[in-house]
Amino acid sequence: MKDLYLECYSGISGDMTVAALLDLGADLNKLKTTLKELKIDDEFEIKVSKVLKSGIEANDFDVILKHKHEHNHDHHHHHEHRNLDDVYKIIDRLSDEKVKKLAKDIFKVVAVAEAKAHGKSIEEVHFHEVGAVDSIIDIVSVAFSIVNLGIENVYVSTLYEGRGFVHCAHGDMPVPVPAVLNIVSDYDLDIKITDREGEIITPTGAAIVATLKNKEELPEKYKIKKVGLGAGKRYPDRPSMVRAMLIEED
After folding, report:
1. Per-residue pLDDT tens for 122-171?
2. DSSP collapsed to 3 states, the chain
């Protein structure tokens, strides 16, 4: 039985979590094979690399979107707006039932929170603000990694968040953004608002925590078997990382 502790003192996002879990030993080659099953290869590629954060080496997971060149006379960029049903259809192509279920569970948390934030039904929410492909890849990659590592129990630290405003498609949104606040409130997660300016918890990050967390208090004493570090990209001038630890109760 494997226990995971996610330490979120500089926020959490999908890509940070994937990077940390890969650093912890989730199988990158198997992940690539799994992502091929989604059959959206023409839309993205992934890049995994090592970066320095405040002098500490961390793992970086990047989803690079491939821009399809469309011959469009009116110069409008064509973005695919996918709703939850479209996303589920893509996730349903996965062969591993456990990964499929976990990925859909996480996505549903995001969809419900976004729907509530925008006053829409869950069917009406389109994942373009979220960046549909980004979210699908991050969420499927997290689900794969959890299953691949054989993790049963997940403990999560208090979620640290910034403050102020973040610029998005709808204009300026207060931090924490409404979807994050909805998830934190619906799933009774501990949050601490810090003095840092800006958003460091993404809806995907919050949804991952909400779905995975199944243990409240860390054991009084535990051994740390392995540590994985996932780098954040938002604020290059400060250390931002998720630390994922495999722990064993002493």
Report:
1. 988 887 654 589 999 999 999 999 999 999 999 999 999 999 999 877 78
2. CEEEEEECECEECHHHHHHHHHHCCCCHHHHHHHHHCCCCHHHEEEEEEEEEECCEEEEEEEEEECCCCCCCCCCCCCCCCCEHHHHHHHHCCCCCHHHHHHHHHHHHHHHHHHHHHHCCCCCCCECCCCCHHHHHHHHHHHHHHHHHHCEEEEEECCEEEEECEEEECCEEEECCCHHHHHHHHHCCCCEEEEEEECCCECHHHHHHHHHHCCCCCCCCCEEEEEEEEEECCCCCCCCCEEEEEEEEEC
